[in-house]
Amino acid sequence: MLMAELSEQIRAPKGLSGVSVTETKIAKSEVDGSLIYRGYTIEDLAENASFEETAYLVLYGELPNRTQLTRFNSELRSRMKVDSSVYEIIRDLPKDAHPIDVLRTAASSLGSTDVKRAPHEQELSVAAKMATLVANSYRIETGKNLIEPDSRLTFAENLLYMISGKKPEESDAWTFERELIFYMEHDLNASSFTVRVVASTLADIYSAVTAGLAALKGPLHGGANEGAMQMLLEVKNPDAAAGYVADALAGGKKIVGFGHRIYKQFDPRARLSKQYLKQLLAEKKMDDRLFRLCDALEREMWERKKIPANLDFYAAPVFFTLEIPIPLYTPIFAASRVFGWIAHYNEQVLDNKLIRPEATYVGPKDLKYRPVAER
After folding, report:
1. Domain locations in the chain as residue ranges
2. CATH numeric code, 27-218+326-350
3. What is the DSSP string of 278-312?
4. Cα–Cα distance list, 22 to 105, 146, 194, 347 (Å)
């Protein structure tokens, strides 16, 4: 009886859609368009919290008091500087390598430079350094001088500063910080599940983060924001939106930035980002054509297919308006999501069981070996 029970398989749908494989206290997204981090709605956090407060919440389960926040800010800022040996590895990579590939290699190399640190210090180190690596790896690739993080700036301000070389305007930093908050966590997405699989083997945090970066690169996950911006630049004019959508759907072409495994009515992060894009363009006294283009594409997709825009669709034009190079969009995603990955890593190892599902074999059987001369 026991052997029969052990050999019996539970068939799950492809992609594990609708299957709960673990319990979590970190975050939860719902079909109705709701998203919570540790019990707080994304709308509440976007309106009131800083990036650092949200990161602390995701990592430790509660919002920090003033003393805890001050200490956390200090710990992050003191760990943002990257060792020169890591930059040497980056310089040896091909100049045309995608920034997420460079970031993945750099993050992996941190495992050898931080190996003697305590686990808590390792986690804060890789999280803090991710922003510096995002900016400076791209600066190396594009032939620019390195910029060291400024301990007087916030995480979001530092990331913008190291990318552009200019201290950001307060309104730019605030808007950018909202997008980082949106990208920080999203329950058991592809990269976070990858991190948990690696964590379940009891590998170190650097291995898990490196694996998370590999999963994030895919256009069905983190790479979608780059594709969304390229599409917007291709369409250009709001008047062309209807024709573009019609042609794309007729040709079976995927329209980047639309649809989500969870959200069927709206993505709350996209809804907020849409507001921030409009505000940002107005504050900069810029033409609102980009906003009108996004709005037109969104309306067309909803009217024709009832498919809502997702976060990537509106985060991309926000980044573009902030003059962030398109190849950096996915690495920026990673600079924020690393805090969520660490939370998932710790939650996994706290009550660990090796993640090792089975596969249903559908290949041939009973074949007999034949010598090579007879094949």
Report:
1. 27-218+326-350, 224-321
2. 1.10.580.10
3. HHHHHHTT--THHHHHHHHHHHHHHHHH---B-HH
4. 29, 42, 13, 10
Q: Tokens standing for 329?
A: 């969009």
In the structure encoding, which two tokens stand for residue 193, read together? 């599940």
| In the predicted structure, residue 3 carries a pLDDT above the cut 60 | no
Give the CB-side neighbour count of residue 9, counting CA atoms within 13 A: 9
Residue partners of 355: CB distance under 8 A and separation at least 6:
21, 196, 197, 200
Judge whether 329 and 228 are in contact, CB under 8 Å. no
pLDDT greater than 80 at residue 199 = yes
**Among all chains, which residue has been given the structure tokens 């200490």?**
71
Tens-place pLDDT, residues 88-119? 999 999 988 988 999 999 999 998 877 677 88
| Residue 341: Cβ-neighbour burial (10 angstroms; 0-12, 13-18, 19+) | buried
Q: How far apart are CA 366 and CA 266, in angstroms?
A: 51
* Sheet containing 40-41: order of strands: 27-29, 35-37, 40-41
pLDDT digits 0-9 by tens, 200-254: 999 999 999 999 999 998 887 888 899 999 999 999 999 999 999 999 999 999 8
CA 33, 35, 41, 47: dihedral to nearest 10 degrees?
-80
CATH topology of domain 224-321: Cytochrome p450-Terp; domain 2 (1.10.230)
Catalytic residues: 260, 312
- What's phi and psi for 99, nearest 5 deg? -55, -35
